Amino acid sequence: xxxxxxLPGTMNRRDFLKLGGLATAAGAATVSNVHAAGxxxxxxxxxxxxxxxxxxxxxxxxxxxxxxxIEKNPVYIxxxxxxEVVVGHIPYxxxxxxxxxxxxxxxxxxxxxxxxxxxxxxxxxxTAAGQSISYDKLVVSPGxxxxxxxIPGYSEDIANTxxxxxxxxxxxxxxxxxxxxxxxxxxxxxLVAPPNPYRxxxxxxxxxxxxxxxxxxxxxxxxxxxxxxxxxxxTDTTMLQGWNRxxxxxxxxxxxAKFVEELKKSKVLGESDGVAQLYEKGIxxxxxxxxxxxxxxxxxxxxxxxxxxxxxxxxxxxxxHKYDVLNIVPPMVAGKIAQDMGLTDKTGFCPIDYATFxxxxxxxxxxxxxxxxTPMPKSGASANTQAKVVAMAVLASIKxxxxxxxxxxxxxxxxxxxxxxxxxxxxxxxxDGKITNVSGPRYQILNASEAQIRLAALYTETWVRTFxxxxxx
Length: 473
Ligand SMILES: Cc1cc2nc3c(=O)[nH]c(=O)nc-3n(C[C@H](O)[C@H](O)[C@H](O)COP(=O)(O)OP(=O)(O)OC[C@H]3O[C@@H](n4cnc5c(N)ncnc54)[C@H](O)[C@@H]3O)c2cc1C
What we know:
The protein is built from 13 helices and 24 strands. The chain is α/β, with parallel strands linked by helices and 473 residues long. It has a 5-stranded parallel β-sheet, with helices on one face. Strands 13-12-11-17 form a 4-stranded parallel β-sheet, with helices on one face. Strand 11 (188-192), helix 7 (203-218) and strand 12 (223-227) form a beta-alpha-beta unit. The longest helix has 23 residues, at 450-472. Flavin-adenine dinucleotide binds at residues 45-51, 70-73, 76, 79-80, 82-83, 114-115, 141-143, 167, 199-200, 203, 335, 337, 369-371, 378-381, 383, 412-413. Residues 45-51, 70-73, 76, 79-80, 82-83, 114-115, 141-143, 167, 199-200, 203, 335, 337, 369-371, 378-381, 383, 412-413 line the site of flavin-adenine dinucleotide (FAD).
């Protein structure tokens, strides 16, 4: 049996160099800024999490490879952690990530231009400014495209000016933060959650929580309405437990039953225990008044039908809802360039070979991150760990070697409140050619202590810092 790659997300730099069968001596990874003549040229479309991490780890493993990132924006605006800008925990400048370290530390070259297409035969990439760039291997990590028009009455223009999404962080994130601050006292904030699959599974629920926490302080008579085309989500039990404890959220009966089942499995509840014991043992709290949050799920009519910006209403299957501030996370597909390059299938995302992330449609082109189809969550953590697998697969292919056997990790932290953290942790292995989740328990335990919950919130903060450094520095 081949030796597995181990978990790329947990490798240190020395492990990574060993893994590539490359130089291991101290300092051997030092790279020069010189474009090595005759060496392979890897072009990467998109300098976000997936693209930047692939570039860095390619250079760490083999400094002689020429690596160029083509990115449309000179500064990356990180989407992860951007809900904290909406509620003013951090300034907008905190989510701006610069590329100086990648250039300086690893000799990665950058072209700031928009890719418009490619020629698979000639192995060239075309850009909006009319450049044609040749490559030996092509990596594509363009993130997502939001389908604003999927909701009647909504459009990209409306999102930019009146009803922001902000699911690709940028000016819309700023607009939403301003709107929240300016919302009239007693007003209603409505968030429309997306259907599966979408970027950052706990994200809409974290944003709901953080907005509620903000409003309890600044707009205590206000309301938060979450319209959802789904009935459940990743991290739902722990996130809803946070809403229950912090925001008086009444736990739906089907979730109470889920809590009982899980806690019986983990022996926190005895076989004869039921819902009453959830409240007796302080796992859940009986609401002491009305909750600021209302969550209308698919089965209660949460699917959105129509937006009317003139009357400031959003219609769902449950009726017409008036809003003061509206945040829509529309359905999404792979970034537009992936579609233009013919890398997507009927799902709107890109099918790949799981061992290497090479496109199933175009050989020699690797697709990763939110744009790819995998059973992994569409998260920055997934894109980062996929990038390390892609870097190894691309190098193996350049050297005419067989790719290794990959494994992946994912950890998504989310906040139910400033000091209330939840998480999901996954480990994936390749089994019979498929990415298979081999995790044990994935979530924070339901009887976690206050300290464990605060620690998870602290981890959220430190994760953002160390994660950004792993991708971009
Ligand atoms: C509110 C929110 C909270 C989140 N929180 C977390 C979290 O806590 N943890 C977590 O792991 N993930 C989180 N995420 C998800 C995470 O941000 C994404 O999953 C991750 O950024 C995906 O990486 P990517 O490389 O696929 O795409 P991106 O990081 O979006 O990068 C794509 C890049 O490609 C560029 N590009 C696109 N098209 C072109 C073109 N034609 N030419 C040139 N450049 C192009 C774009 O400009 C962009 O820089 C969150 C997302 C949101 C919205």
